[in-house]
Amino acid sequence: AALLVNDGTSTIWIKVGADAVANEGIRLNANGGSYYISSSAANYSTGAVNCITASATVVILVSEWSDG
Questions:
Q1: Pair type for strands 26-28 and 34-37
Q2: What strand order describes the sheet that includes 2-6?
Q3: Would the pTM count as exceeding 0.85?
């Protein structure tokens, strides 16, 4: 499982298993927006997690663990 949290002040866009593109995919809102990936959820993937933002500086926190 993994938890991604946007700890910055700009929106982050996520794509799993593909190149990230601004304004497409999964939106992580600024100041605490989050996305949870789990083997028990329909969103589980072993693909690369790619992110993009319009800002030059962002902070994304990633926690990963085994939920099996």
A1: unpaired
A2: 34-37, 2-6, 60-64
A3: yes
